[in-house]
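FW: tagging you since you asked about this chain on Friday. Here's the raw sequence from the shared folder, copied in full. Didn't touch anything.
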Amino acid sequence: MPTLEILLNTPTEHVNETCLPTSFDDAHTFHQSLEEYEPTPLHTLSSLATSLHVQGICVKDESYRFGLNAFKGLGVSYALNEILKQAPQAEYTFVSCTDGNHGKALAWRAQMLGHKAVIFMPKGSENRRVQAIEHYQAKVIVTQMNYDDTVRLAAAYAEEHDYYLVQDTAMPGAAKAANHIVLGYSTMIFEALAQMPVKPTHVFLQAGVGSMAGGVLWYLCNQFPGDLPFIGVIEASSCACIYESVAQNKMISIGGTPYTLMAGLNCGEANSATFPLLKAKCNAFIKCHDEITIQGMVRAKNPLPDDPAFSSGESGAVGLGVVEEVLSNARYYSLREKLRLDENSVILVFNTEGELEDE
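HL: got it, structure written out here
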């Protein structure tokens, strides 16, 4: 089986039937009001771009976000802000399912605001990720289920105890919070566009359930209507639910207990609120094996001369890994053409997490 597989897509009109909000300025203004806020760096890999015969490669580095080593605090902080507007004096217990970063962000923000958090994690969760969440005084429950079944368990638990579900995928009764999380992620692309000297020709976005990819794409759709960059969505081959849903023209669930080193992408069911947007507006869906993200991690730590080094985790490095593999491996020459990559390409990828840290 090829290391990389691609499904080309012809963009079509998108009708916002899932009510994705467009109050981007509200989200950005909120984030800028936080004491912990500062824009994360944008790394320009000029030497790598020259060696790969493209105009530019930029990496938006979310490992610096709020001291959490990942981007998830953007969505969680904005969603909790919107929830607390409803009853500012109430005492909340927030519930969620996570592979690590989302739960850590929720526990962090809940503790900061004086509330409680209960975090469910799927079978096989890394103990360091458990400890990182417990560091913020959250209760962690590791199940013997896969990610998607654990999401459903968390939702049932929240309903049973009259707690507040804060999940980055649309669930019955919790879709508004999920959409606010998606909107919160738009701050990444808002910052990146301000930091780049020119508009990117290509944006590659990794996806688990597709909420981050949806948040970035939704902002681009509103910022550049009718003139979007080439958008590629990248998933792990073992659990490429968005790729397979587009291929089959219906939302599908990948059951069982698939494994990928990219824990944050190990999701078998797409977010139903962002999937229609991704299906309508993306140019390509890509699935790849773990070796590709390992290559990206190695490149981040060992850059070409004059390029910056940075910390990139398993889910964070896959965009960089895909770009370098496609542009450097003769095996993928035809793939370069399909992705419209040439000497004029300015490529933006997102390093969504740094390397996993010991607590």
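FW: The longest strand covers residues 230-236.
HL: agreed, and Residues 147-161 form the longest helix (15 residues).
FW: great, closing this out.
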